[in-house]
Predict the structure of Methyltransferase like 12.
Amino acid sequence: MRNRKIRKEKEREKNTVVPASAAVLAVVAAASTAAVVVAVTVVVAVTVVVVVVVVVVAVAVVVAVVVVVVHVVVTPLKAAAWKSEWMEYNGFHDEKLSKLSYWKKRYKDKNKVFEWFLDPDEILEPLLNNIGPIAGKTSMPLQCLDIGCGLSDLSLHLMTQSDQPMSVTLVDFVPDALQFQLRRIIECQQEMQVAPGSIQHLVCADTIHLPFRDGSFDVVVDKGTMDALLKDKIHGHFKATLMTSEVLRLLAPGGRYLQVSDEDPDSRLLLLERFILKSSFSQPIKEENKQNNSDERNCQGQLPKNYNLSSWKFKTITSKSGSEYFLYWVENLQL
């Protein structure tokens, strides 16, 4: 009996231990599953965060690259294109400015005023200050030559602002420019009040071969024309010398040559003095021709004998945009 009782108790203990072990295992299994789920969740979360960070970094890198490309490549290209277009419009391209073909193309079918360097209202006062002493010496209409007039309204403004009658001759080597000036005269004759006796003449001619008699003009105005000639890297100085000789030949005693330029006086004054000193010359020069763009011809020019000039003077003029330009002038002191 006792042995049987002992066996039953052992079996009871055994049956009690087994359920307890199963519960522990179940708890352990559940804990392990929970740990795995947590671990997987953490891994997934970390992966998502890493992916997001990588994507954000990649986007930031792409944006940075685009910004760099825009600033380093696109913006300069756009700026260069804009500058080129601006210079094309304002006539600042080197070499082209000295070519007849460029100006023919530039002026073809144009119906809008174009002012190079300065607007008339920015230059009128110093011009009239130079013209005043000449006008005071005669009661006759002042003979004025606008050399290389282009599409500028400068001569019209001179005529309206001058107290004395002016006979203004506009010269350009492009017929379209003169046709434009003729239209402007017709358009403005009703609007603009000029001194009685004032008149304009239009002449198509090259500035280095002007078809006028010696001493024909009291005033010669050159607004950027010499600057255009000097753009010719081969013949620029020669052409400018010829033009200077022609202009000074045309100045009447007491007359003045007025030149507007953007070139600094340190350079321009030396050039002007040099051009005057070269009073005679003869050498071949290539000029553009409608039929043959490489037509060669000999050009000669010579200042009148006993010519007496004052020294060159200049005045600095600041434009509305803040740029500096210069008015140069010289007087024929010959009596």
Remarks:
- Helices lie at 2-90, 100-107, 120-135, 154-161, 175-188, 225-229, 236-250, 265-277.
- Residues 2-90 form the longest helix (89 residues).
